[in-house]
User: Which sequence fits this backbone?
């Protein structure tokens, strides 16, 4: 690859230009700043925002071991065949130092590692001041602005953070595997509502047909107000079986989104959520910084725990001190 001149940290505009040209090193630098939650990332994100909204963002979630990474890998391969640039964000709850899963993913991803049309990034789930969903959304924006036409976001569907991440994708894919009743439990625990598409992976395994019947029964009863009926696709991701169909269904859903008035509303709801979240973070950040240092917070907490005061009075006091009342 041709060497591009390095941007100096004091020149955000050069960095922005490099991101917009799709330079992977500039993309990596901006993403690191976003991850560190440095103030420095904000002017960059401001500049990049108007150039976003073009990628197809695909959220992939499901229980650990269901085959999400294998599917992501295969989908990336299909999009690369069409010469689309692909960004992959793996949000992994395990620490990068102990996570065996990440190591496995890395080895699998080596196929794409030498491909300049693929950008892979894994994000740790801890330590994001404004929340993981916000950090992920910012990383998606950077990839979007850098011209990655497809961005695949893999998360383990367990916590609220992960659900929030998948909600901000254009298309949410829930990956399940035939494994007793656990997955049905997982669906009841909220995966059911977020899937635009369900993938029954490992359909080469025992019990796949039985599990398929259960899933179809659950999905059969589902009706959505946007007129979409979530599909179920059976796959064997390790063999690439059914992955073309997953891709076709993703694109079918995207067409549906474009044609449906509910889509615009959905877009506005997401934008509203993002704005309010940002405002919440910034306001709280300001209050903490100005009038509520750690010692004061501790003192308040102690008096609350001891029932010497009540949370309403304390909140009012804090707001008054912050000049908000
Ligand atoms: N038998 C079978 N194994 C699979 C299939 N897809 C993935 N696997 C295996 O299941 C394990 C977990 O896959 P992985 O993609 O890491 O799952 P993730 O945790 O959801 O990302 C790996 O050992 C894969 O090789 C499949 O369709 N059939
Ligand atoms: Mg994985």
Assistant:
């Amino acid at each position: 690859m041709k060497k591009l001149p390095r941007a100096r940290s004091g020149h955000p505009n050069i960095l922005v230009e490099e991101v917009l040209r799709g330079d992977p090193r500039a993309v990596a630098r901006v993403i690191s700043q976003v991850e560190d939650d440095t103030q420095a990332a904000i002017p960059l994100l401001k500049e990049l925002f108007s150039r976003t909204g073009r990628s197809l963002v695909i959220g992939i979630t499901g229980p650990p071991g269901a085959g999400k990474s294998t599917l992501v890998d295969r989908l990336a391969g299909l999009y690369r065949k069409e010469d689309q640039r692909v960004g992959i964000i793996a949000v992994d709850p395990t620490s990068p130092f102990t996570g065996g899963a990440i190591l496995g993913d890395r080895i699998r991803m080596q196929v794409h590692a030498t491909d300049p049309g693929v950008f892979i990034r894994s994000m740790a789930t801890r330590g994001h001041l404004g929340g993981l969903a916000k950090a992920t959304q910012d990383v998606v924006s950077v990839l979007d602005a850098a011209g990655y036409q497809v961005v695949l976001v893999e998360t383990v569907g367990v916590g609220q953070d992960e659900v929030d991440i998948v909600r901000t994708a254009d298309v949410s894919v829930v990956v399940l595997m035939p494994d007793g009743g656990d997955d049905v439990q997982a669906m009841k625990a909220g995966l059911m509502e977020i899937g635009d598409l369900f993938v029954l992976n490992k359909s080469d395994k025992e019990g796949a047909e039985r599990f398929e019947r259960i899933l179809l029964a659950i999905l059969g009863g589902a009706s959505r107000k946007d007129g979409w009926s979530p599909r179920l696709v059976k796959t064997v991701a390790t063999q690439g079986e059914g992955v073309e169909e997953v891709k076709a269904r993703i694109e079918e859903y995207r067409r549906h989104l474009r044609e449906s008035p509910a889509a615009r509303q959905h877009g506005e709801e997401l934008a509203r959520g993002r704005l309010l979240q940002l405002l919440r973070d910034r306001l709280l950040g300001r209050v903490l910084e100005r009038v509520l240092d750690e010692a004061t917070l501790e003192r308040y907490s102690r008096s609350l725990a001891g029932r010497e005061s009540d949370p309403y009075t304390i909140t009012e006091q804090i707001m008054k001190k912050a000049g908000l009342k």
Observations:
- The pocket of guanosine-5'-diphosphate (ligand 1) is lined by residues 64-70, 101, 104, 201-202, 204-205, 236-238 (CB under 6 Å).
- The two ends are 58 Å apart (CA to CA).
